[in-house]
Amino acid sequence: MRGMRGSRKTPEQELEETRAELASAEEKQARWAARVAELRDSVTAQENTLILGAVRSVAASPEELRGLLAAIRGGGSLRADAQIAAREPPAVAETPPASYEIQADTEEPPLPEEDLSDEE
User: Fold this and answer.
1) Which residue has the higher pLDDT, 97 or 22?
2) Domains of the chain: which residue ranges?
């Protein structure tokens, strides 16, 4: 039973191991929090691109769009909707303005390949 005596950890050793595990978990948490923030930003940018495309596809002036949005929210009449439907659709531009340029075929950085289990 001599071998068992040497393998037993002192409370101080257990505390140091727990502190090291905590530090490792906090580092992982920070990396994942940063990745979540990046993904949220990416989702917002993609949603904005879709919204912009939808708005541009409508043959309406800014005033008519405001009226239509107000009607959708319940605060206006559908008169703007009828005006929009009566107009010819605008010519579709080949490329969006530089301020709204879509970055197609961009690859998201891969998720960190790490195990989030308690074992290290």
Assistant:
1) 22
2) 10-57, 59-94
